[in-house]
Amino acid sequence: MTATMAATVSANGPIPAVVLGIDTPIGLAIVRSLGRRGVPVYGIARSVAAPGLSSRHLCEGMLRAEGAPGTLDQLEALGQRLGTACLFAISEGDIALLNQHRDRLSAYRLMFPDARRMDTVLDKQKTYAAAATAGVPVPRTVQPATMADAEEAAPTLRYPVVLKWSEPNQAGILLRRAGLALDKTRYCHDAQELLEYLRQFAPVGRYPMIQEYCAGYGLGQFFLMHDGQVHCEFQHRRLHEWPPEGGVSTLCESVSLEHHAALRERSLALLRSLEWEGIAMVEYRYDPERDEAALMEINGRFWGSLPLACHAGADFPWLAYSLLGTGKAQPQPGYRAGLRCRFMIPETKRLARLLFQPGAVADRKLTFSRAGELAGYLRDFLRPSTRYYLFTWSDPVPFLRDLWHVVRRTG
Description:
Blueprint: H1 3-12, E1 17-20, H2 25-35, E2 41-45, E3 60-63, H3 67-82, E4 85-89, H4 92-100, E5 108-110, H5 115-122, H6 124-134, E6 141-142, H7 147-153, E7 161-164, H8 168-177, E8 186-188, H9 191-198, E9 209-212, E10 217-226, E11 229-242, E12 248-255, H10 261-273, E13 278-287, E14 292-299, H11 306-312, H12 316-326, E15 340-342, H13 344-356, H14 370-382, E16 386-388, H15 397-410
Parallel strand pairs: 1-2, 1-4, 2-3, 4-5, 15-16
Antiparallel strand pairs: 6-9, 7-8, 7-9, 10-11, 10-13, 11-12, 12-15, 13-14
Helix pairs in contact: 2-12, 6-10, 13-14
């Protein structure tokens, strides 16, 4: 599309949207959500393998310029070409970068929270402190400052425990400099295992949080907020994850708003206490046997299972574009409960681990039936209520592109 054509679209039609990060199902879901409603969508990808580059709903796709300065120059030039546009960013690292340079993005209406709000939810200690004030349940958590703190706490904990970094982005930088790996989550099953694992961080002087294990499954509650009001609500439960003990959602199911209403009110109270603007996911571990929930984190960006919400009818990218980009609030959409969505490549990796490496699952409390897992994997292909993160009949090429590049990498 030429600059003149782009200016005409902006003047006479929908405001264009720019999506920084169309390499994942998240970015692809945003492209599809906006493009099928006639919004001109410009996508920026890190790699030629990005599935979003093949979407029929993409107006123009381009590869990302090298380095942070190059990316900022690229966005600035694109903003000058398009005029007013809405800018979506997918990763927390990109959001942090763009928040540092908001003065260079004056051509854009920014579809992500500012630095103050993002910093609060990225720091789990701050999140848990706000949650306690809002009456949101949190698991018992210890943040050792020294090995002596860890040695003192270790005998008092209920095992297993899960280790997480309070500020994973900052911790990752420090650990890489020291030649250490950052584990997003780490399970320890007794005090000896815990202390042996923590000793490697003594030279760095930083330690992960120690969190008591919470039984159950992942429950996500999703919101679009503006001026303290909620404009869209949605929730789902995680059925499968990769790795199996917790990580990326590979199979999830939409849950009616009739369920977990009291917990959802506490989630809203927490977001209001943070003066939240835009989209957010409040994630819990929910134990159905005890009817108890414990807060895991607040995700202040578009989440990995966004395709499920869009398939079910809670079309958050379009709703955010309308509300925050054009100032036109849409009514709370009804959505379909009981709809499932699969992320096929990690879902297949999960099945392979359970079939051939069950001993590699870090959470020893989890038990699986190999025959049952295989039957369920096959049965979901035939289930009418199953949808997919990447594949849709109306826009199939992104899935085929992704599959082709996966085959090339493994060949």
